Amino acid sequence: MTGQRNLDLGEALAEAERRFVGAHPMSSQRHDAAKRVMPGGNTRTVIYYPPFPVTITRGEGCFVWDLDGNRYADFVCEYSAGLYGHSEPAIVEAIKEALGNGIVLGAPNRYEAELARLMVERFPALELVRFTNSGTEANLMAISVARVFTGREKIMVMKGGYHGGVFMFSGNGSPLNAPFPFVLTDYNDVEGTRALIREHAKSLACVILEPMLGGGGCIPASIDFLQMLREETRNTGILLIFDEVMTSRLSPTGLHGAVGVIPDLMTLGKYLGGGLSFGAFGGAARIMDRFDPARPDALAHAGTFNNNVLTMSAGVAGLSKVLTAERSMELNARGDRLRTRMNAAIEKRGLACCVTGRGSMLNVHFLRGPVQRPPEATARSKDWLKLLQLEMLARGYYMTFRGMLVLSLPMTDGETNGFASAFEGFLDDYAALLK
Ligand SMILES: Cc1ncc(COP(=O)(O)O)c(C=O)c1O
């Protein structure tokens, strides 16, 4: 890049897109072919971005390669599920071993109770746990058991929150959302939310939130907000559910362990399956006991692949052999350093931009902080995020279209310092436009 060439954001974006299209002819062709058999060539909305997404064909360590032969340091990190990177030997070995012993056993196997034990030991809120195939399914189960357990109907959620494909609360929410009676509140609004909980106390089954919004922009909840939720829900018999599908990676004991606020139930997913399809829900034994199949009043919980041997074995290997408390802390400290450096670069240049997050999950926002809740997505902010993504791809860094950055264990200072330098170059190139 030559620095401050464009005066207009639209022109800058059009030029970056032209360069992107020129550098990815094979991805473009693959996308065109995919469009003939899948709507928009896509089977997972979040991995689409215009004009077409790069096709990734290979990953190793913290790097990925696209169909056109470009190599990127991977800061998408499979939206946090790629914590172990692409080729962690302990996980590869575990999957091979499981494969060698047959993959559809149709019974309890050697792995699931071991993975459950490792998770129960790790996360303070987890006394008993059950597995699912996705985080979405885990949230569906947690919310549903909260309704049965309390005998109440309503679910309190955060505006801008995300808990899976049928729990999307940005903008006006999704017409595909599960048909529960939701009560929406503002993230980090202590008094407003307290009042709303009290107003709906008799009909609320649960309050569900991420202790840091992940997809909502890596916005941490204040301790005051979490403590108020704990106090008000306890006083009114409402279940507090933390969705830690993403945030459990932020400390050795999950984010709830780090902040010392213990929910009644929690949901998990992503990296805990070692990179394979995974979800889990669990928490207090007094609630989870209802799933004991030996009870006459047992709640049934189905799922053909809940204990599939590939996920279970990969999950066990990850927690028992790779993700020690030390490595978890190192990874999150690396993320904190990256965020601090990026914010310092922004501040030094006096730009309307900030980086939020905690530990190994970060999000760039094109506005001046602090950011307390998901900002409204304007045409301008979307254009800036798009430009950032295209410019970082051009510089060899794979990142999301929404400004989210996630770190993985194989990353070294080389990748994070390299990313920070590339980001500083981006800021210099567009400083005149960003003031
Ligand atoms: C906080 C949160 N909850 C739930 C989910 C859904 O998980 P899955 O994609 O495995 O269904 C996600 C996925 O991004 C998530 O970020």
Query: Counting H and I runs of at least 4 residues, what is the number of helices?
Result: 13
Structural class: alpha/beta
β-strand percent reads: 15-25%
Helix content: 40-55%
Report the average pLDDT across residues: 97
Total DSSP E strands: 16
> What's the gyration radius in Å?
22 Å
Q: Unreliable runs, pLDDT <50, ≥5 residues?
A: none
Shape: globular
Largest sheet: 7 strands, mixed
Strand order of the largest sheet: 4-12-11-10-7-5-6
Ligand inventory: pyridoxal-5'-phosphate
Order of helices and strands: HHEEEHHEHEEHEEEHEHEEHHHEEHEEH
Distance between the termini: 19 Å
Fold and architecture overview:
The protein is α/β, with parallel strands linked by helices. It contains 13 helices and 16 strands. The strands form four sheets. It has a seven-stranded mixed β-sheet, with helices on both faces. It has a four-stranded mixed β-sheet with strand order 1-2-3-15. Strands 13-14-16 form a three-stranded antiparallel β-sheet, covered by helices on one side. A hairpin with a 2-residue loop joins strand 1 and strand 2 (63-66). Helix 3 (89-100) packs antiparallel against helix 10 and helix 6 (190-199) packs parallel to helix 7 (223-236). The radius of gyration is 22 Å and the shape is globular. The site of pyridoxal-5'-phosphate has 16 residues, from helix 5.
Describe the protein's topology.
Elements: H1 9-23, H2 25-35, E1 56-60, E2 63-66, E3 71-74, H3 89-100, H4 112-122, E4 128-132, H5 135-150, E5 154-158, E6 182-185, H6 190-199, E7 204-209, E8 212-213, E9 219-220, H7 223-236, E10 239-243, H8 254-259, E11 265-269, E12 279-283, H9 285-288, H10 309-322, H11 325-349, E13 354-358, E14 361-365, H12 379-394, E15 397-398, E16 404-406, H13 413-434
Parallel strand pairs: 3-15, 5-6, 5-7, 7-10, 10-11
Antiparallel strand pairs: 1-2, 2-3, 4-12, 8-9, 11-12, 13-14, 14-16
Bound molecules: pyridoxal-5'-phosphate (PLP).
The site of pyridoxal-5'-phosphate has 16 residues, from helix 5.
